[in-house]
């Protein structure tokens, strides 16, 4: 078995949350990956229900703002 495979942790989740390129290029995939990692951490007992709810709420907030952020970015720099 490979030692490369690590269960997800809060650092992994935060790094994904902060990945603006991924979020801009694929907001839905970014959102679903954040949800999956939070669900995995809850299932493995790495976080409790309250922490899981906080992570899910952060992902929800970021995702609902994604279309507006992408439109604003395009308006600021149409060549981007």
Quick recap:
The chain has 80 residues and is mostly helical.
Structure description:
This protein is mostly helical and 80 residues long. The protein has one domain (10-76). The chain is 74% helix and 0% strand. The protein has helices at residues 10-17, 20-25, 27-43, 49-76. Helix 1 packs antiparallel against helix 3 and helix 3 (27-43) runs antiparallel to helix 4 (49-76). The longest helix is centred in the last third of the chain and has 28 residues, at 49-76. The protein is globular, with a radius of gyration of 15 Å. The termini are far apart. The mean pLDDT is 83.
The number of distinct β-strands equals 0
Contiguous low-pLDDT stretches (5 residues minimum) are none
Category from helices, strands and their pairing: mainly alpha
Percent range for β-strand residues: under 5%
Series of H and E elements: HHHH
State the end-to-end CA separation.
43 Å
Kindly provide the radius of gyration, computed on alpha-carbon positions and rounded to a whole number of angstroms.
15 Å
Oligomer status = single chain
- What portion of residues is helical? over 70%
Overall spatial form: globular
Number of domains: 1
Output the number of helix runs. Answer: 4
**What number is the mean pLDDT?**
83
């Amino acid at each position: 078995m490979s030692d490369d495979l690590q269960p997800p942790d809060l650092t992994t989740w935060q790094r994904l949350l902060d990945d603006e390129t991924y979020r801009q290029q694929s907001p839905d995939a970014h959102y679903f990956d954040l949800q999956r990692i939070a669900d995995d951490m809850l299932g493995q007992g790495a976080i409790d229900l309250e922490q899981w709810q906080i992570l899910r709420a952060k992902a929800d907030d970021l995702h609902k703002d994604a279309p507006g952020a992408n439109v604003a970015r395009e308006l600021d720099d149409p060549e981007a």
